[in-house]
Amino acid sequence: MPSSACSTASCACCPTRRRAPADVARALELKVGEPVVQVRRLLLFGGRPVVLDEIWLHGGLFKGLSAERLSEYRGPLYALFETEFGVRMIRAEEKLRAVAAGPSEAALLSVPEGAPLLSVERRALTYGDRPVELRRGLYETSAHFYRNELS
Questions:
Q1: 3-139, CATH topology level
Q2: The model's pTM
Q3: Tens digits of residue pLDDT in 103-138
Q4: Distance between CA 58 and CA 134 in Å, rounded?
Q5: Domain map of the chain by residue range?
Q6: How far, in Å, are 43, 98, 115, 140, 144 from residue 101 at the CA level?
């Protein structure tokens, strides 16, 4: 399993409280401008970057999420969300497509600009089909494959 680590200033693992932009608000079924938490993280495998994640969370449900909590927690984020915040992800919808690495993604993932990446957009839902997370990940798959097991 990849480990979470940030190695550059442009990849901040610390959560940022923001007002929901229109696309995020729509995906999380919020009003534009409602509070959300944005987390950017770079996942490493064998010391090499393989996943660049941008995670958007429903702000009202994750009020105490901090950089310290994220850095200290050793396990899947969904387990943290459940144990620390009482939010259980019970279902997810994903859309996958191939994209070309832009300049900033290429630098963070240590690939040439234009290299193929797998783009995965996930919307995770809790009870009552209430969306609580929008995750947009870019995966460097030249030495790895995307595998997901949802239950």
A1: Chorismate lyase (3.40.1410)
A2: 0.85
A3: 999 999 999 999 999 999 999 999 999 999 999 999
A4: 9
A5: 3-139
A6: 16, 10, 5, 9, 16
